[in-house]
Amino acid sequence: MSITNIKNILLVSSGKGGVGKSMVAVNTAYALSQNGYKTGILDADFYGPSVPLAMGIRDQRLTSKKEGGKELFYPIIKHGIKVNSLGFMMNPEDPVIWRGPLASSALNQLLHDTIWEELDFLVLDMPPGTGDIAISIVQQLPNANAIVVTTPQEMAVADARKAANMFLSQGMDIKVLGVVENMSWFTPQEHPEEKYFLFGKGGGAQLAHEISTSLLAQIPLVAEVGTCADQGKPIYATDQKPILDAFDQLIEKILDETLVTVA
Description:
By secondary structure, the protein is of the alpha/beta class. The chain has a single domain, classed as Rossmann fold, CATH 3.40.50.300. The strands form two sheets. It has an eight-stranded mixed sheet with strand order 5-6-2-7-1-8-9-10, sandwiched between helices. Strands 3-4 form a two-stranded antiparallel sheet. Helix 5 links the parallel strand 8 and strand 9.
């Protein structure tokens, strides 16, 4: 199945786990869909596929059809978004004990043998780091755009720097749209004017400056993020104004920077 009907492919990456990459990927897809764009999301984080849980479709399984000697998969549709993930093909409690070539082959199948049809955006929740699967994705998706997610502290920024440099390496035709800084500060709900920088300050802006790109958004630490993920509800769908403002800013900048005009 060709992916030529997908106008924009957006790689959401991070240098390490635990920085909220999947949260950013899911809510970016949701926000794009809510803004009227035909959107899909592919969970390419094979060793920790969390998109099904975050989308509230953890117990569903894919259906497929045979065509031209190949098995083609119908994505599961939730919140108007077309979703595919390795998580739909396995027991959620089972570990993924696959070597790089097998995992890359499975990813290739999910990407190219899913019936995406026409999309304005396909968001890929990338595996963290710069391993075999991440490199395989980058190599087979020329002209894709990337977002690098980090938290403010130096340890996370150091790892995110490596992920960004993977996209910027010679021979990689990937444009880094910018950096998303997650968990930028904590604001108590009862004191909305206060900001507490629990994980340091300025790391996202520092990374953006180093790689000559933009700081796309700063997403505050909100307790409801974890609750929403467990309930399969995008945080963007809540009334958390700081989150809404951050993602509205992110989507505006994505639309300004994407290379292919959307419908």
